[in-house]
Please model this.
Amino acid sequence: MVKHVILWTLKENLTAAEKAEVKAGIKAGLEGLAGKIPGLLEIRVFTEGLPSSNADLMLDSSFADQESLKDYAVHPEHVAVAETKVRPYTALRSCLDYEV
Model:
């Protein structure tokens, strides 16, 4: 199994209300991919970090193998979410992929 973890920092010019809306959209969009992409075993988005956090939200996902992760990256439904709900609003993205 492969874990795919991403931390995002939202753009600074977003208001608190806009950030809340963006977080909700990212969560709904990414978690809505469950059951739609072969090899995607689990996908969760966390939007409410503790005050000690230095990122705004986190994706925690699991894939059957590295090939499934590669297929997810280019899957049209994932690309649509990334291009409309994530990339326009994020300033920083950190990713860690690892085998379990």
The two ends are 5 Å apart (CA to CA). The mean pLDDT is 98. The first strand starts at residue 2 and ends at 10. Residues 16-31 form the longest helix (16 residues).
